[in-house]
Amino acid sequence: MTSQIIPVDPFDLIIFGGTGDLSERKLLPALYHRQRDHQFSEPTRIIGTSRSKLTDKEFQEFARKALTEHVAKEYLDKAEVDKFIKRLSYVAADATSGAGFDDLKKAIGKSDAIRAFYLAVTPALFGSIASQLKKHDVITENSRIVVEKPIGRDLASAKQLNDQIGSVFGEHQIFRIDHYLGKETVQNLMAVRFANALFEPVWNSAHIDHVQITVAETVGLEDRVTYYDTAGALRDMVQNHILQLVCLVAMEPPSSAVEANAVRDEKLKVLRSLKRINGQEAPKKTVRGQYRAGASAGGPVKGYLEELGKPDSTTETFVALKAEIDNWRWAGVPFYIRTGKRLTTRVSEIVINFKPVPYNIFGESAGNMIPNQLVIRLQPDESVKIFIMIKDPGPGGMRLRQLPLDMIFSDTFGGRSPDAYERLLMDVIRGNQTLFMRRDEVEAAWMWVGPILDAWAETRQEAQGYTAGTWGPSGSIALIERDGRTWHESA
Ligand code: BG6
């Protein structure tokens, strides 16, 4: 995709968990692309760190392999890769004992460049890394810290983590990543809503019947057995990514889209307006599922329990729920949400379902009047489509049909669609927090999710089995059909 590239100031990026999965699959490839697109200024350095004792050369080899595996061949250019590799160095450090932090300090030196500490490690280490950085005096005014989810597993643990990081870094220095906010189409949601006069007048309960958000994955547990089984779909996907999408759909127009707090203030209001789902309502408004053996990508796959090797886990790999927002704009407009692993297809989309026309003037012979829909597809093939009714061409009487006015990004823009991490990493360096979650947002999201988790525990709400490769348990279909609606065909 084409866009004007504005270089960022020189920076030192220190990646904790530098040899981990996120660094390999996402961070190093994203940084490479940014360099390749001439977004770096010199001198820019990347320092990998983890507990493993590695030499600079070994880390550089790790990075070279990461680029070979995770950057498409057409973008791998030897001279560019060599230039990137030269930026990399490595320091072994252990946050628990503090060993290696002096070496890290030495490696960073006296540079007054922007300094970003990226914590691609388990949240259990956030607090100790932050305090070791402070103790070893490596935090400058120009420093920032980036943390990955999960920020806690409930409100209390989220507060504790936020306190630990907050005792060392100011809120303006803390970048809580939610990579969904870096996705092109998610930002496009802001553009669609606030750069067009067309939508705002109808963006409310007078004209919108309901909203659907689907984030479907075909993958199973992958190699995240321990983490996933303690989290489940509600914590893993809804508390963060999906609630952020709800916020962007539902928020009031912020006074400025370039002022981080203006946007975050509006998102926070949405989170605080979410109607609590209590113990009695949970079975009616939420569905938990867990995949059983089935088929995915044309081949047989194991069920969750077999993959996990633990026959009694009750963790949900699927969740569907009906969320409601108690405010003027959205009263009476349900937001149906569903997400799960091992579903039919990988697709993430937001569907805004408008109300039907008040009266059909065409008569029955014209066919069904299907209400308008705005479908924003985040992945895999990014697009924005508005489904409208038009006349079927020809003289054979007035027949109506539904067709999309569409914009398919790959057709319109061509080229490569940058990964969310590319944008977010550059925003960290630019110091732009708009697409990062503020402390109060994370905590407000937990305040809504917590009672659902409590209700599930109290009522022992079971995870209904679903066959891998389907759209989830039948309860998910019943959840929306009870209200006389159906899930949008996403496949
Ligand atoms: C992560 C979740 O945050 O997002 C994973 O922990 C999930 O379970 C992933 O697979 C999905 O991200 P994406 O960008 O592939 O939709």
Q: Can you walk through the features of this model?
A:
The protein is of the alpha/beta class and 491 residues long. It has two domains: 11-148, NAD(P)-binding Rossmann-like Domain (Rossmann fold, 3-Layer(aba) Sandwich), CATH 3.40.50.720; 181-481, Dihydrodipicolinate Reductase, domain 2. Helices cover 35% and strands 22% of the residues. It has helices at 21-36, 56-70, 78-86, 101-108, 126-135, 155-166, 184-194, 225-231, 233-250, 260-273, 282-285, 304-308, 409-413, 420-430, 439-459, 474-481, and strands spanning 11-16, 45-50, 88-92, 114-119, 143-147, 174-177, 208-216, 286-292, 294-296, 299-301, 318-323, 335-340, 347-354, 373-379, 383-391, 400-408, 436-437, 463-467. Strands 16-15-14-13-7-12-11-8-18 form a nine-stranded mixed beta sheet, sandwiched between helices. Strands 3-2-1-4-5-6-17 form a seven-stranded mixed beta sheet, sandwiched between helices. The chain has a two-stranded antiparallel ribbon with strand order 9-10. Strand 14 (373-379) and strand 15 form a beta hairpin. The longest helix has 21 residues, at 439-459. It starts with 10 loop residues before the first strand and ends in a 10-residue tail after the last helix. The model has no long low-confidence stretch (mean pLDDT 95). It binds 6-O-phosphono-beta-D-glucopyranose (BG6).
